[in-house]
């Protein structure tokens, strides 16, 4: 099962020079809850934006067309969409796409679920989610969880779960 997981602002912004444009601890907690003990797939720029560090208790997969790319020993590198799809078929566990825009654009058609955090604010950045790749008629929203706004989480937000019809 391939699941796209991302956070975006109200305009679809997902990144700013390789990092998140906002600080929202609730979203980081949500991300951890969903991905813990599962594989996460990201592009090279996303991985490097994370300081080339892996997240604990997750299998990190970097998808890059650069066949000479050298990742740390505990990171699996894949070089094609098909290589990743072959991997997904070998596991019963969900595999999460976590970015960036190119990875989402090339693999959204293969996803069976979408988990989206929508932050009801606008930020500055340079990377947008490729929403034009989604035909929303193929998806059903199965759950929306409002995020708690408090002194640590300043922006209204919600967690949305979609499953392919």
Automatic annotation (TrEMBL):
Catalytic EC class: oxidoreductase
EC number assigned by the record: 1.5.1.3
Pfam family, one: DHFR_1
Keywords, alphabetical: NADP, One-carbon metabolism, Oxidoreductase
PROSITE patterns on file: DHFR_1, DHFR_2
Repeat found in the keyword field: no
InterPro entries xrefs: DHFR, DHFR-like_dom_sf, DHFR_CS, DHFR_dom
Residue ranges annotated for the DHFR domain, each copy included: 1-164
Catalytic activity of the protein: (6S)-5,6,7,8-tetrahydrofolate + NADP(+) = 7,8-dihydrofolate + NADPH + H(+)
Annotated pathway: Cofactor biosynthesis; tetrahydrofolate biosynthesis; 5,6,7,8-tetrahydrofolate from 7,8-dihydrofolate: step 1/1
One term of GO molecular function: dihydrofolate reductase activity
Biological role stated in the UniProt entry: Key enzyme in folate metabolism. Catalyzes an essential reaction for de novo glycine and purine synthesis, and for DNA precursor synthesis.
Similarity comment text for this entry: Belongs to the dihydrofolate reductase family.
The name this protein goes by in its record: Dihydrofolate reductase
Lineage: Bacteria, Bacillati, Bacillota, Bacilli, Lactobacillales
């Amino acid at each position: 099962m391939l699941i796209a997981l991302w956070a975006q602002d109200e305009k679809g912004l997902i990144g700013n020079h390789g990092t998140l444009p906002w600080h929202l601890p609730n979203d980081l907690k949500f991300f951890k809850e969903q991905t813990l003990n599962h594989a996460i797939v990201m592009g090279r720029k996303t991985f490097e934006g994370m300081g080339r560090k892996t997240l604990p208790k997750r299998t990190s997969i970097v998808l890059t067309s650069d066949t000479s790319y050298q990742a740390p020993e505990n990171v699996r590198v894949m070089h094609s969409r098909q290589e990743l799809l072959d991997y997904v078929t070998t596991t019963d566990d969900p595999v999460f796409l976590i970015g960036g825009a190119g990875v989402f654009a090339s693999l959204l058609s293969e996803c069976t679920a979408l988990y989206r955090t929508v932050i009801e604010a606008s930020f500055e950045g340079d990377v947008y989610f490729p929403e034009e790749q989604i035909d929303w008629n193929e998806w059903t929203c199965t759950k929306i969880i409002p995020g708690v706004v408090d002194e640590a989480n300043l922006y209204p937000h919600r967690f949305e779960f979609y499953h392919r019809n």
